Fold these 2 entries.
Entry 1:
Amino acid sequence: MSKVLVFAEVQGDDVKSVAYEILGKLSGQSVDVAAIGSIPAAAAEKLAKHGAENIHSIKGDKLEQYTPEGWSNALKNFIGDKGYDYVLAGSTATGKDLLPRLAGSFDAGMASEVVNFTFDGGTFAGTRPLFAGKCLAKVEITGPKPHFVTVRPNALGMPTSEDAKAGATNEATVDAGTIRAFVKEIVKGASEKLDLTEANIIVSGGRAMKNAENFKILNELADVVGATVGASRAAVDSGYAPHAMQVGQTGKTVSPSLYIACGISGAIQHLAGMRTSKVIVAINTDPDAPIFTKADYGIVGDLFEIVPLMTKEFKALLG
Ligand SMILES: Cc1cc2nc3c(=O)[nH]c(=O)nc-3n(C[C@H](O)[C@H](O)[C@H](O)COP(=O)(O)OP(=O)(O)OC[C@H]3O[C@@H](n4cnc5c(N)ncnc54)[C@H](O)[C@@H]3O)c2cc1C
């Protein structure tokens, strides 16, 4: 059995769901959860239900806002000599920035962006995509512990059963050390929707959208089915959508349960970012578009007719 710390990110009155996904794969290990700041009571209860033995809220001066130095110093001080064998976090924007820095500060090994893992006999073995998802590599970590791992959100899926543990809650006060770069201001994006990397359903538009205004029909469908809207690079480069919405090799890598590609040809660089989606639906006027070779469901037709029709039908179905 290994001693594992899962780093959770507080989001509103919960923590980001990837923490629950990770906990679901850790049954049989001794697992603690830590977050910077207060963990809402409902989230702590849920974390305990999913196997957290101890739940730590890490507090300290200058930690309200994420800074790479502050949060990694804080976690390093918290982890100290508590004897964790592994530290796991989601491969979110924060996780991708924080964990490598933390691993570096321990001079320890790390596996990034794994999409699955096992703890056979307490030893981590993971799988991660390489070459834009064309192959999967098996990864193991050697050297001094703790070892660090980031896990791609939505890759493991939410646990279907519970593994309730005590979930004792603690507050730890730590020193954030010297912070040389501060965030002075955060300008929130217009969308209140989940980030693409965490979305369970994504509706994406390509060059065929023709302009930014036409994304309205994707937003309407997204509102009905609870999706986040994405875009191809051609749509982003044409100024129809901001870069934050780009899916693909030079955009975001996503693994939703459902990916609806509207007027996207299916170039290899786009597939690199979404090929691990569980179900892919493609709408395209060209029956030979490469996206159809990866789609589970293909609709040959004009997106400007089909998307509003889907919105209407889903609205009727979902109320
Ligand atoms: C280094 C590099 C990195 C890249 N990174 C990315 C990346 O991160 N993400 C990315 O997406 N691309 C990326 N690209 C670009 C990629 O190669 C493609 O050019 C891009 O994905 C094409 O976008 P698209 O499918 O929207 O446009 P197109 O390839 O032009 O496809 C438009 C599709 O819409 C269909 N269509 C037209 N009208 C309609 C209609 N009314 N209804 C339905 N269908 C219609 C057409 O049949 C066509 O299949 C990258 C390229 C390079 C070289």
Note: Residues 206-208, 232-235, 246-251, 263-265, 267, 269-270, 273, 283-286, 289, 302-304 surround flavin-adenine dinucleotide (CB under 6 Å).
Entry 2:
Amino acid sequence: MEQYHLKTKDRINLGSYYTSTEHTNTVWKFVRSYIDDSWTVLDSSCGYGNFLSYNTRCQKIGNDIDSTAVSSAKTNIPTARFFNHNALYDVSREKYGISKDSRLCIVGNPPYNDKTSMIRNDIKKVKFSIDTDIDTRDLGVSFLRSYAKLDADIVCVLHPLSYLIKKANFNCLKDFAKNYKLVKTKVISSDSFSQTSKTMQFPIVIALYQKEENGMSYDYIQNFDFELENSLIFKQNNYDYISNYIAKYPNKYATVDRDSILFWTMRDINALRRNRTFVNKNNQNAIIVKKDKLDYYIYVDVFKRYASCVPYYLGNCDVIIDDGLFKQYKKYFILDSLFYQHHLRKYYAVFDFEQTKYKSIAKQYIEKYFKILLGEHYANS
Ligand SMILES: C[S@@+](CC[C@H](N)C(=O)[O-])C[C@H]1O[C@@H](n2cnc3c(N)ncnc32)[C@H](O)[C@@H]1O
């Protein structure tokens, strides 16, 4: 069921984007072979209870901070027990009447709401308390940590793929990563949720975790085969990244002079889609380009123009590169970039930029580069 009772502001605040049957079915498909009728299944942020409508003889428990949602859930799923608690405060099994020795499976789609994010910062305000041992800047990460605190045996939830593949986020998982191991995934697009912004898709993962003594390391995630909807596999370590060649962030101690070439901070591919590349004026987001690395910044400038052939699931990765191939095709990248960045032409005096035919030749070769770089992941749009 689609969420219908909240105003935009509250929907964003609570992260109330409800999950379609297609995705809740995937979650049940993933957990089915791990659980039996003796288990308890909990969704601690259940909305209208979409995840609990599955026909099973397990004990089903739902909870949500939103009392209207809980009322609907009670009507929708008479076979489950419901609570109206803040799931991140005073986290314990007792709160839901789950005994210590029950085998517990947590399902759901917790809210993802980066409290510090710039996007829609005006309306994002978290009003409820969070236990200090699970408090992080992102609500979704706090939810994952609350599952560890509840000592779940199996966790199968939807969350942004960036929680795993961005190292800084992965490090925030703390006890969750220490005690749980990713075993099965399906990556879906944020686009498959109605009511979310359609301007920038980001990857969401339906992730099955199993409690395991040694948990998982970041290295394990980098080598994990993430399953995609089109039955392809995405593995982070299949690619080389621009961060292995150039600085992505400004150096506080570098000084700018009249000759400095400036480039906007690089975060991930989705940020590059939104942001600028070369900039004229210095500011705190500007990187001073080392001249001997200029070719790589040019690469990123071109990458931005061709980013539509990069699939959404790479959106949270650094800019990817095949350095050997780039070296072969470099002159076409330089030609393409310098058609736009006139102020850099003085560094490449060997090229005759007035020859407009070069523009289409460069395009041809760059397209070829991206087809080889991305292979079966090349997106046609
Ligand atoms: C993405 S929705 C998911 C709802 C439902 N599981 C589904 O997928 O259809 C997130 C839900 O988390 C609830 N929520 C947000 N903060 C919460 C909190 N601190 N405690 C409990 N529920 C919370 C919201 O009210 C919302 O219903």
Note: Residues 240-377 form one domain.
